[in-house]
Design brief:
The complex is a heterodimer of chains A (289) and B (362). Chain A folds into 2 domains: 1-53, no CATH class; 61-286, MetI-like (MetI-like fold, Orthogonal Bundle). The radius of gyration of chain A is 24 Å and the shape is flat. Chain A has 13 helices and no strands. Helices cover 74% and strands 0% of the residues of chain A. Chain A has 289 residues and is mainly alpha-helical. Chain B is of the alpha+beta class. Chain B folds into 2 domains: 6-230, P-loop containing nucleotide triphosphate hydrolases (Rossmann fold); 244-361, OB fold (Dihydrolipoamide Acetyltransferase, E2P) (Beta Barrel), CATH 2.40.50.140. Chain B has helices at 49-57, 99-109, 114-127, 143-155, 173-190, 201-207, 225-230, 235-240; strands spanning 11-20, 23-33, 38-42, 64-69, 72-73, 85-87, 161-165, 193-198, 210-215, 218-223, 245-250, 260-265, 270-275, 284-289, 295-298, 304-312, 316-323, 328-334, 347-351, 358-361. In chain B, the strands form 4 sheets. Chain B has a 6-stranded mixed sheet with strand order 6-7-8-3-9-10, sandwiched between helices. The radius of gyration of chain B is 25 Å and the shape is elongated. The A-B interface holds A 182, 184-185, 187-195, 198, 202-203, 206-207 and B 57-59, 78-80, 83-86, 88-90, 92, 94-96, 105-106, 108-110, 150, 153-154, 157, 163.
Chain lengths: 289, 362
């Protein structure tokens, strides 16, 4: 008779708890020491330095400057999400119905920016938008404007550049949702008497909605904490919350207040994740379970 | 299901042609389907049967020819304006709707009120024997149940014609046979015209009033199942429908269709047969003879053969025979008929009715 092996090796379709723990340990250690621990320290600063207090949090909401930054962050994140959705939906629609060279080209156009450094992409936008940049030269060349227009350091420029940077996070979940709709399903709808618009409204849109929600949440949450692009393209006029945090830490050396700002952002993100709990089901990002 | 205008269910294809690059997917096909008729489009893959169905549905537009439904030219009408029903190969129920919502969908598209929608959807669900399943999601149903719902959804709005694209191919054998009869009975009960695409000849013969056999985009023969099996008009139909022995040879004199002929076989000897079509003098000939029409008798005077192998299959025994010229033949002996059942190695004598051996120009 053979002997029953140690339970460590017995898992069937899943790994045994011990094996799972061992395999994920390096990553969990990294997360604990590099993410959770520093975050905890920062949040503790915001609540217990110099003595137990909520003054740092109150200050963020009391002073109009900081309130404006938080509000602007929210507005920019919403606008970025909306613009990315408007750009991504038709693109994903075409990509879901194409193959071969066209699909390859479109996929490259979407993904290439993702593989380039954020800094490079942001400087590219600065080259385009600055006073003697490509856009101003073109506008003056065709005689639409007589003097350079200040595109840079405007909210529009920040939204445009951020939407571009974050576009893949919107396109990919929508594309994967659209790809999951079999062609015969839309054909069936048409056979049953649905016009193109009804087919879209009754079948395509409801089935793509989970992908749209995932994409919107992803882009919105990433936009809330975006740093490089708003800092360089928006300048001080368009300061967002992460730039403010960085300023507090590096210039004011006010760690407790920076911690309070981080705490507010974190709470807000968590609140949204909880509210949209059904929509942010993690398996959508991992692939269908 | 109400009284329908019988002329509405007629389908006519007139000289239909469709090319995909150099390939002729549909090659000059003309076909009429009567109202209330069950017509099967049968052929191997690439025969054009699905392309024809897609053209009737409105998902493919022909290069030439016309499609008429109920006398109305619909060649260029979009699918949603044709008022046809269709059941697809794979399950095409909307996953985000309940079973009842799925069936009510075509009624909703026709702007029928909520109460009537629900009533008619429930009635359709009863028709396919799934009453009480209305609140379930499609994913909670088995494959056979899902296809039944798809059928209910396709007939609830009383379309002029029901198109079916290999709707049973994803089901296992027993369920498939059960569903074949169920669909057939349903079709007879509501009197709807059905155009049914399949590559399964048994399915076509079991279900259809008439079968249209296609090969390489060309219509080979249209006829009742019995005619196709007993009197195939082309070599392709003889070989495609059922099992057939082919003996090759030539004919020294011309013959008109239906005339008895004596074919000089390549391996020597002559074979008596009936011309299935007009045969030219000196042309190559293929004689088709069904295994069950070949009689196997104890050795004696007449064409002789030797039993190479005997395969027992319960209801019949198939003999693999080889005659003196090396021609291989199959013969099927039904069980329980008290017929001569030789063993491998035995010498036997072969016999057949001249009418059962059909000679084609090869």
């Amino acid at each position: 008779m053979s002997r029953r092996p140690a339970s460590f090796f017995l898992g069937g379709r899943r790994y045994s708890p011990a094996a799972s723990l061992l395999l994920t340990a390096p990553f969990l250690l990294l997360v604990t020491f590099v993410f959770i621990l520093p975050l905890a320290v920062l949040l503790r600063e915001s609540l217990f330095v110099p003595e137990p207090t909520t003054a740092h949090y109150a200050r963020a909401f009391a002073e109009p400057v900081y309130l404006r930054v938080m509000l602007r962050t929210l507005v920019i994140a919403v606008l970025v999400t909306a613009l990315a959705l408007v750009l991504a939906w038709p693109l994903a629609l075409v990509m879901s119905r194409s193959r071969g060279l066209l699909l390859g080209l479109l996929a490259a156009a979407v993904l290439l920016p993702l593989w380039t450094s954020v800094l490079v992409r942001t400087y590219a936008w600065m080259v385009l938008l600055q006073r003697n940049g490509v856009l101003n030269q073109m506008l003056q060349g065709v005689g639409l404007t007589s003097a350079p227009v200040g595109f840079l350091y405007t909210q529009g420029a920040v939204v445009l550049a951020m939407a571009h940077v974050l576009l893949p996070f919107m396109v990919l979940p929508i594309l994967s949702a659209l790809r999951g709709i079999p062609e015969d399903l839309t054909r069936a709808a048409q056979m049953l008497g649905a016009s193109s618009w009804s087919t879209f409204r009754e079948v395509v849109w409801p089935l793509a909605l989970p992908g749209v929600t995932s994409g919107c949440l992803m882009v919105f949450l990433l936009a809330l904490g975006f740093f490089v692009t708003p800092a360089l393209i928006g300048g001080p006029q368009q300061m967002m919350i992460s730039t403010l945090v960085s300023q507090q830490v590096r210039e004011m050396l006010d760690w407790p207040f920076a911690g309070a700002l981080v705490g507010i952002l974190l709470l807000f993100v968590l609140a949204i994740a909880v509210v949209f709990k059904r929509a942010v089901r993690l398996e959508r990002f991992v692939g269908s379970a | 299901m109400g009284v329908r205008d019988t002329s509405q269910g007629q389908v006519a294809l007139e000289a239909l042609a469709k090319r995909f690059g150099p390939v002729k997917a549909i090659d000059d096909v003309s076909l009429r389907v009567g109202a209330g008729e069950f017509l099967a489009l049968l052929g191997p893959s690439g025969s054009g049967k699905t392309t024809i169905l897609m053209a009737i549905a409105g998902f493919e537009y022909p290069d030439e020819g016309r499609i008429l439904i109920g006398g109305e030219d619909v060649t260029w009408a979009p699918p949603n304006r044709r008022n046809l029903g269709m059941v697809f190969q794979r399950y095409t129920l909307f996953p985000h709707m309940s079973v009842l919502e799925n069936i009510a969908f075509p009624l909703k598209m026709r702007r029928i009120g909520r109460a009537e929608r629900e009533e008619r959807a429930r009635a359709a669900l009863e028709t396919v024997r799934l009453g009480g399943m209305g609140d379930r999601r499609p994913s909670q149903l088995s494959g056979g149940q899902q296809q039944r719902v798809a059928i209910a959804r396709a007939i609830v709005y009383q379309p002029r014609v029901l198109l079916m694209d290999e709707p049973l191919s994803a089901l296992d054998k027993n369920l498939r046979e059960e569903m074949q009869l169920e669909i057939k009975h349903l079709q007879q009960r509501i009197g709807i015209t059905v155009v049914f695409v399949t590559h399964d000849q048994t399915e076509a013969l079991t279900m259809a009033d008439r079968v249209a056999v296609l090969d390489h985009g060309r219509l080979q023969q249209v006829g009742a199942p019995r005619d196709l099996y007993e009197a195939p008009e082309t070599v392709f139909v003889a070989g495609f429908i059922g099992e057939t022995n082919f003996c090759e040879g030539h004919l020294d004199y011309p013959a008109a269709a239906g005339e008895p002929v004596s074919v000089a076989l390549d391996g020597g000897g002559r074979m008596s047969a009936t011309a299935a079509q007009a045969l030219p003098a000196g042309g190559r000939i293929k004689v088709a003879l069904r295994p069950e029409r070949l009689r196997v008798l104890p050795a004696g005077n007449g064409p002789a053969a030797r039993v190479k192998e005997a395969i027992y299959a319960g209801n019949a025994t198939t003999l693999m025979l080889e005659d003196e010229a090396g021609q291989r033949l199959r013969a099927r002996i039904p069980a329980g008929g008290g017929l001569h059942e030789p063993r491998p190695g035995d010498h036997v004598r072969l016999s057949w009715q001249t009418a059962d051996a059909r000679a084609f120009a090869a």
